[in-house]
Amino acid sequence: MTIATARTTTNTTIRPDEAAHFGKLAADWWDPKGSSAMLHRLNPVRLAFIRAAIDAHWHGDPRTVKPLDGRRALDVGCGAGLLCEPLARLGAAVTGVDAALENIAVAQDHAASSGLVVDYSCGDIAELGLGHFDLVCSMEVIEHVADKGAFLAALAASLGPDGLMILSTPNRTLKSRALLVEGAERLGMVPRGTHHWDLFITPDKLGELLADAGLAMGEPQGIAWSPMKGLHLSDDLALNYILTATWQGQ
What's the chain's average pLDDT? Predict the structure, then answer.
């Protein structure tokens, strides 16, 4: 098995301070009780949405074990590969991109130890020239980039003609500020400095930016939290939301 050597490039949409922050967390990324514990709780919720979206978009059989067999998938802002590896298990030829070289190193090692082939690159998706993908994902990333419009344009440039894009991000609401920034970070559930509420984006604004990139946004679904259910898919968009996007007119 061969894991591709990480490629590096210069930055245009990357905020160096954000890349440095997440790079410092790299060694702890796969520890479900470590600094990325919240992502481990969030990942099954996102995967449930992604699987349903894949089946709906390509009219697949929900009983199929590998619905992405024969398709290329891209995860931008992949961290240490928490989403890349499940996508590979769903049958995709997966490429992961992240701004922090430390994350890429951990991701490569973990994929190799898991017996998975994932092609990882370090740098800016706008400059890597990786070609077109059937599925383009970017989870909890757009709130960290330097230029949201340029970032979405770069994602769109990576999306194939019948492609499906899936994004998730915190909403810019008083609830998200209270729970994600003032609550979760102060209580140590999320590392300090992870979230900057003024960089959060509402679904309406995200829809406008996607339209500017030639994409039509699907109906967002909330990712909510409750003491009984924990994190779960919901009609409540106030905390966090996840959505699909496809080419306009598709």
Answer: 88
